[in-house]
Write a structure and sequence with these properties.
mainly alpha; 407 residues
Length: 407
């Protein structure tokens, strides 16, 4: 039965993101692939990019095997999303949740459009990879708490270390590791086992802060204590739950089964905590979709609990209709509007690459709506050419002029 569920969940995840396999790479992907290939395994020791080693190592591995084939990169991202969907289902091992809820939660997570940028943008792979190792560590942690086997504890520590090398925000897993103690009083006597995770997280945060004087992460608007987090967090929390999360909350509150209410609390706390590291942006008061990937577990658990209630207490067609609406609206949105947005983002580099492939001689880039670094690496990686000209004084009659004007 569980193998059948895993198969269906994989199909749902593939269905949601299938058109991505025909999507070009986006602007930041090209210099990131170049950086990943140049550094290789040395990325782990890099003071700035080392904290995101897993995504750079993944990019380099795909580049070495498949070159610049966009479908290969997106196929791997979809595969990671499938594994993450299975991890959501595995949260059914958590006693307050249960597999009946987690199965529906995983189905929702598989097709949910709110975190799409993490799958539809290669450079956003940091979030699914953080999820893969962070939630994987959480599940090993649960096994240790319930079974007491030290091998599960060691596995949790190892997976958490890899999560810390996936994204700066991985430290937030430590408060999430504490949730079993909050919702199960019988486990609280084991809370001291959380100490090594706290120490590792503190070391990771300390390293990030140590690099603040020369790290661009503190200068590009990604993090500032002066950011209006009191606006960004509630705004993003509300958007995360609109509209399916809100409907799920209403369903649970109207039915009020004790287990569903507990899952509701777990989901709300999980989502709220997971959004905290991303709430210190200065360039927007809305957390980007890719950075809601981990927080989406919260809304998935709540939606899963609501769907489980409908499956138990209503005619079967009600829950079937409810999930069909979720499926159609989310997948439809991904296949149409979001796909169009990503294609628009890719258009400038795609036009420049097309020109580089069909012309000879240098190309004078007169106007390009992305940093020059993006254009240079996009053309170099896809065509091998290094003859872009940016200075009008160096342009000459033999050069072909490129100017992106959009639609």
């Amino acid at each position: 039965m569980r193998n059948r569920i895993l198969f269906v969940l994989a199909l749902l995840a593939m269905l949601a993101y299938l058109p991505t396999l025909r999507q070009p790479l986006l602007e930041d992907d090209y210099p990131n692939i170049a950086e990943a290939h140049a550094l290789g395994m040395h990325i782990i020791a890099d003071p700035i990019f080392g904290i995101r080693s897993t995504s750079f190592l993944l990019m380099d591995a795909i580049y070495r095997l498949c070159g610049m084939n966009p479908a290969a990169y997106y196929a791997v991202l979809i595969a990671v999303h499938i594994m993450n969907t299975w991890l959501v289902y595995a949260l059914g091992y958590w006693r307050p949740v249960g597999y009946e809820v987690s199965a529906w939660a995983a189905a929702f997570f598989a097709v949910y459009e709110g975190h799409q940028e993490g799958i539809m943008w290669l450079s956003g792979a940091t979030e699914p990879l953080l999820f893969l190792f962070g939630v994987g560590a959480f599940l090993c942690w649960l096994r240790f708490l319930y079974e007491g086997r030290r091998t599960w504890y060691l596995a949790a520590v190892a997976a958490f270390v890899v999560a810390l090398y996936s994204k700066e925000s991985a430290f937030i897993m430590v408060p999430l590791f504490a949730l079993p103690f909050v919702f199960d009083a019988k486990l609280r006597g084991q809370i001291f086992w959380l100490t090594p995770f706290g120490i590792l997280a503190a070391l990771a945060v300390g390293h990030v802060l140590y690099t603040r004087t020369y790290s661009f992460r503190f200068n590009d608007g990604s993090f500032s204590l002066h950011a209006p987090f009191w606006i960004t967090w509630p705004n993003s929390f509300a958007r995360l739950f609109w509209v399916w999360g809100l409907l799920a909350v209403i369903t649970i509150l109207l039915s009020k089964p004790a287990r569903a209410v507990k899952v509701l609390y777990i989901g709300l706390v999980w989502a709220g905590l997971a959004l905290v590291p991303y709430s210190f942006l200065t360039y927007t008061t809305r957390i980007p979709s890719r950075q809601t990937y981990l927080a989406s577990v919260g809304i998935a658990l709540i939606a899963g609990s609501a769907l489980a209630i409908l499956a138990q207490r209503r005619p079967r067609w009600v829950v079937t209709t409810a999930f069909a609406l979720i499926l159609i609206t989310n997948v439809g949105y991904l296949w149409t509007r979001k796909r169009a947005q990503f294609l628009e983002r890719a258009a400038p580099t795609e036009q420049l690459i097309a020109l580089a492939r069909t012309t000879k001689g240098p190309i004078y880039v007169q106007c390009f709506p992305r940093p020059a670094l993006v254009a240079d690496w996009a053309v170099r990686l896809t065509t091998g050419r290094t003859d872009l000209i940016w200075d009008p004084a160096q342009s000459h009659s033999a050069a072909v002029t490129f100017c992106y004007k959009g639609k």
